[in-house]
Amino acid sequence: MANAPGLVSPPASCFRMRNLAPLGLFRPRLFVAARNVRRTRLWCCAAAVDGGVEEDHVLKAAATSSNPRLPRVVGMGSKLVGCGSAVPKLLISNDDLAQIVETSDEWISVRTGIRNRRVLTGGETVGGLAVEAAKGALEMAQVEPDHVNLVIMCTSTPDDLFGCGAQVQRDLGCKNAWAFDATAACSGFVVGLITATRFIKGGGFQNVLVIGADGLSRYVDWTDRGTCILFGDAAGAVLVQACSGDEDGLLGFDLHSDGHGQKHLNAIAKDEETELISSNNGAPLFPPKRSSFSCIQMNGKEVFRFAVRCVPESIEAALEEAGLASSGIDWLLLHQANQRIVDAVATRLQMSPDKVISNLANYGNTSAASIPLALDEAVRSGKVQAGNTIAAAGFGAGLTWGSAIVRWK
Ligand code: UT7
Fold first, then answer.
1. What is one process in the GO biological process aspect for this record (predicted)?
2. 301 lines ligand 1 (CB under 6 A)
3. How far apart are alpha carbons 261 and 120 in whole angstroms?
4. Mean pLDDT calculated for residue range 170-180
5. pTM score, two decimals?
6. pLDDT at 45
7. Do residues 158 and 219 touch, judged by C-beta distance below 8 A?
8. Of the residues 266, 289, 360, 372, which has the maximum number of CB atoms within 10 A of its CB?
9. CATH class of 78-246
């Protein structure tokens, strides 16, 4: 990837505080690990998009950041103990797409690495895939639905505007759990995973299901060859379980967002004016409107540049928190958006191709589902083994991005 001015090379700096944890989630009786007590320091990072941002934004961003974090609390750890996944039945190949837009298998596979994707049809739903994926995770973990405390449904495309986590919880029979939806686009699974560990470490939860599920095909413009070739539908899930601090499987993490880049990737709510109900004097009494969302709009080049610059920085920050170098990581597992992005990040981190998990050739970009879907395949094929460390990173609309260094089991 060329070192695009102001994007790949750091432009104006922004500051954020690191290694401070959200206060509210912790119980006062827990104590602080000496090994994690680090001096609060300023961490310098590049602005996400557009060659940097003005100084006043930089200062505001520092003041309102989700960091600072306090030193990590120990006494309780969390680990991944099960995974599962599900994809729709209908397979759409690059050749199929070449029937509806001016493209070719060669163009798509060379530029993206994608060859096939799965698309929801008939009665299939995002929630249905989520349930199937979560069942796989529970079965692998040998945890009964009754023993789940929380279901985090990471999705940008719920079957219900108000979210579908509670319906997934109902259909799984997790009657002792509560559920909510988390929306952070293609970073959703990483956000959900880290959130789950916070509920375990600070909230006393035992078993948390984290599901990444999306049906972006519902919002794809199937006449736009720049976007319709990229996306597919799927669900993946992991069960995160409480364990002792010594066994803690979340070794480090790093999260970001920057709304300045929203213009590069979005599906905006739009109001459709309906007949106005007027009062007697003709003035509108109230304007009833129905909303829907536009199709996915993307500036692919900008998103590409953002990903290859910000994702390695984020992984490096999470590795530093974990006290690891990239050479100490067994697997690199990125959001599956484009093979060229995956390769560029691996090169930057000096990780050899045989340490990279990739299945986007078969499924395309499945948004919040892509990381747990690829993890599930890698675990079930025997590639990822108990005790392996994985550097996982999500990135996408928002813009949002983040990383987690995790140990499998
Ligand atoms: O979750 C995060 C979501 N998004 C991403 O990660 C996307 C990141 N970006 C990308 O993956 C790449 O930017 C794309 C794969 C979307 C596009 O690749 P590109 O190398 O950036 O191509 P481009 O948009 O610059 O287009 C190059 C040419 C253009 O033609 P001209 O203007 O040079 O004549 C496009 O019209 O390729 C044309 N083109 C296509 N040709 C055949 C764009 N899409 C297609 C297509 N088939 N599907």
1. fatty acid biosynthetic process
2. yes
3. 29
4. 97
5. 0.85
6. 37
7. no
8. 372
9. alpha beta
